[in-house]
Amino acid sequence: MNNKFEYENFEVEDQSLENNNEQQQLKNEFFSYNYCLKYIPIKTAAYILLLLSIIELILAFIFHHKIGVFIGIFCLAIGYIELYQLKQQQLQIQNINSIQGDKKTFLSGPLVQKKITRLFFISGSIFIVLLLMIRIFCLKDAFSQKHFPDKCDDKPNCVMVSDKNQFRNQQLYPLILDASVQQIQDFTKDYFSKKPGTWIVNVSEYKQQNDENIKNNKNKNDNLSNQYTYIFAKFVTSFWGFINDIGILINCENDQVYIQAISQSVIGYDDFGVNYDIINDFFINIEENEFEKMQC
């Protein structure tokens, strides 16, 4: 009788030891998922990701970057899922004895899901940090928002179509049209307002002959008359969200409208032909449009 009792007692102790070992194993399994890259607590990383996602959403809306908006929403969701899984993990560890009989299902379920979520978490975090770095560097302007620049920087990230200081313009030259400055101005504003990924930042109009701005700019652009418009716009590339600044100078010369243009990348050494395409597309559209013939 005593032997039987000791045997049963031994079985209970052995089972208890086995349960404790399994419990510790499960805790160790979960513990390895409590850190991002083995050093950063995942809870801290998730809150940082949520903050960065909100910042990215705001900047993506400002910069008209659709992919940035999608990435911001995606990372918000991933950050929330990580926090939710962390909370569920803590509850499961507290009640771990209740799932000992189904340990295999337990490990192949939540942990596999966490591995997949963690993969998206790390990928999204890296991508959103890269996007935010691009946003920060693109906050500056490539050239003035109020005056047409004299020339391009000596780098293949700029195209200038002007009566002087032409740069990487290939077959493009300033346009001369029989129309009014107002007509061309309205067309240009409408064109860049409707073009995907492009928006108007500033429109400077100078019409008075004694305008101090005109006097200042005549020293830089001899072809300017006493009536001209300078339009400054921005274009964002579809995937990475790089910014290109666009300047359109519209002035009246010899009763005709004279149009010059510049497009330059805010950051980067090479534009891979983007700036040329921006100006070329604008010139093609403006030439195809029928304007009422009149003196400017």
Automatic annotation (TrEMBL):
<feature type="transmembrane region" description="Helical">
    <location>
        <begin position="45"/>
        <end position="63"/>
    </location>
</feature>
<feature type="transmembrane region" description="Helical">
    <location>
        <begin position="69"/>
        <end position="86"/>
    </location>
</feature>
<keyword id="KW-0472">Membrane</keyword>
<protein>
    <recommendedName>
        <fullName>Transmembrane protein</fullName>
    </recommendedName>
</protein>
<keyword id="KW-0812">Transmembrane</keyword>
<keyword id="KW-1133">Transmembrane helix</keyword>
<dbReference type="InterPro" id="IPR010865">
    <property type="entry name" value="DUF1499"/>
</dbReference>
<feature type="transmembrane region" description="Helical">
    <location>
        <begin position="119"/>
        <end position="137"/>
    </location>
</feature>
<dbReference type="Pfam" id="PF07386">
    <property type="entry name" value="DUF1499"/>
</dbReference>
